[in-house]
Amino acid sequence: MQTRNPARHRNRGALFAASLPLFFTWASGATASPPPSYSVQTTTLTENIPLIILRDETSRIEAAVAPSQGGELASLRVEYRGRWNELLYRGRNYEPAPGFRGKASILWPTVGSTFPAGNQATKGREENLYEHLGLTYPMPQHGFARSQSWQLVRTWANETEAAVEIVLKDNADSRTKYPFGFELRVIYRVCAGRVELDHRVMAAATNATPMFFSIGNHIAFRVPLLADSTVDAITVESPACSEYLRGADGTPNGITRPLSFQPAVLLKDLKTVPAMSVGDYMGEPWLRLADAGGLAIKVSHLTPSNPTRPFVQFNLWGGTREGYFCPEPFLGLHNSFNKKIGLINLAPGDSWTWLIRVEPERASNKKP
Asked: Which fold has domain 35-362?
């Protein structure tokens, strides 16, 4: 069952309309005109990984998407005080390296570990299993979308945005893990000085039962955000109301305690390894990571329908000692496929949307 909240949702159905053209171009006149504010370009990394680059010359912000690498946001660059700064941890870096790979992978159709009752969450465990209609299926950590190659649908740029749409559809491999027909479409756009990740999940009309899932994004920011800044002065601010405590199995157990990051707190003082899961926002959930050098990042997300409570809205992981901080926007609960809570249930033929906004805030234009 889902809880409807249409007041917090704007109608974005037109975003996926097939009538939009593939590319927009600018006509040249007799005299030279200024370059367009928004543009789409492509490049290929040395690891032979194609990137689609969305750029806003006016706001001086650039995002890169890697369809072949789980469709993830691979880079987020912002110009600040005359210097371009990569804000994602290991942004555009796909060279083999130990430890966390960074960037901003899409977590779907589940978040966290998936393991049978009586076991504990262990990274990389082989027992990532769940049951559905009497059959047992494997499910990788954080789902399988982040390990798939996504299909490029279209790109465009006009006077208001630069964007790319990608899609992941069910296939022979996905059906061994997740017995549903589906389409997961994401439009990445650079607009109005921010990056938006607009998700649309569609359940195949031929599905025999409602399609259940949870969703998240493992966005990872490098800390400090600015290379010459002070890591110990980084702050976190968010109007969360509760922290979800973890049970013996290492995952949130539904028990909460009051928590708020207003006023802002120092990141170095937070215990976010293992992750801290927060929720129960009274309005739109958001979190701001602020660097002492005057640059901040605000992450927010919204949907027309949430899972039934309890569910996590931000999963906080990493810190100043790790060199990265992941304010992972979530809609779901760890091990939701076995606990059968924190899930979105989508009837055959129905669709569901989720929007994430990532907005740089410079010292001169910080917003409330």
From this structure: Beta-galactosidase; Chain A, domain 5 (2.70.98)
